[in-house]
Each structure stands twice: as C-alpha cells, then as structure tokens.
Design brief:
The chain is an all-beta fold. Helices cover about 0% and strands about 40% of the residues. The mean pLDDT is about 95.
Length: about 100
C-alpha cells in the first residue's frame, strides 16, 4: 500500500453556538447542498483524505466547501475554496533484485 501525504483543511468557526460542520467537495465548478459531503462534527479542521473515508483519491483541481449545521438541521451557506490536490499514489518500481558484484 502506498503512502499519501495528508492535507489539513481549516476554517474559522461559525458565530452561531452549538453547530456542527458539513464538508463538501466537487471536481466541477462549484459545490452545492446535497452533493458530495461528509458530516465532520463540531471541529474546525480535518485531515484529507484521512478523516473522510469517501474523499476521492484524485489529482487535479477541486472545490472544497464547509457549512455550519444547527441541531435542528438548518444549514448555512457554503464557504468554498478552489485548489489543486494530488492524492494519487505513484506506480511502484519493479524487478528489484540483488546480484553478486
């Protein structure tokens, strides 16, 4: 199994008390409610891809977003950022051998 160097996504907390956060991602131009997301709890940072098991292991441009969710299920607008990531693992070398000199 290869090794992927994680990235940390951080955000400033909502001004509303007692909220949890929903983290979004998209490989198109924008993130929208009810697309690819994971509820991450009452935290203000996550490690990608480690903290979200369904996060895509891709390379390229991606849009990330985060929203605040109240206990009653109401959700804020999504704060977004666009960037390049590389969570792909290179092919391993082949044919390792040891020879007499």
């Amino acid at each position: 199994m290869g090794k992927i160097l994680p990235k940390v996504a951080r955000w400033q907390p909502s001004g509303t008390p007692e909220v949890s956060y929903r983290f979004y991602w998209a490989t198109c131009k924008e993130v929208r409610h009810n697309l690819c997301y994971a509820d991450v709890g009452a935290v203000t940072e996550i490690r990608l891809p480690d903290d979200i098991s369904t996060f895509p292991l891709i390379a390229g441009k991606i849009v990330l977003g985060v929203s605040a969710v109240t206990q009653s299920g109401n959700e804020s607008d999504i704060t977004t950022v666009t960037g390049d990531i590389d969570f792909t693992i290179p092919a391993a070398p082949r044919n390792l051998r040891v020879e007499d000199t």
